[in-house]
Amino acid sequence: MTAWVWLVVAVAAEVAGTLSLRGAVHTDRRWYAAVALGYVTAFAALSTSLARGMPLGVAYGTWAAAGVALTAIGSRVLFGEVLTRRMVAGIGLIMVGVLLELGGGH
């Protein structure tokens, strides 16, 4: 798999782990196993992405930004949490920042 595929796996695992925190805190402590698995998988996939040649700035910036945006959207969809216009605008700015990082001439 390419560095980008590993980065997508890292983002997905981190978001899954973070969303699982809601279950761990509010319903059943057994969700902490999903939290741990998500974070361990995320860091392993991020490391693999870096090992496959992804620049650290691009990898971490994309991972963190996509994680924040997808977690906010996921919490809205799964848990009905508030997602205000200001938050949506912030997610849009995050996406612009990632695009700027990707076009930075690496």
Number of strands: 0
Query: What is the percent of helical residues?
Result: over 70%
Q: Please provide the ordered H/E string of secondary-structure elements.
A: HHHH
Pairing-aware structural class of the strands and helices?
mainly alpha
Describe the fold and architecture.
The structure is a single chain. The protein is mainly alpha-helical. The protein has one domain (3-102). It is 82% helix and 0% strand. The chain has 4 helices and no strands. The chain has helices at 3-26, 31-51, 56-79, 85-102. The longest helix has 24 residues, at 3-26. The mean pLDDT is 90.
Brief summary of the model shown:
The protein is an all-alpha fold. The chain has one domain. It has helices at 3-26, 31-51, 56-79, 85-102.
Give a quick set of tags describing it:
106 residues, mainly alpha
Strands, helices and their partners?
Layout: H1 3-26, H2 31-51, H3 56-79, H4 85-102
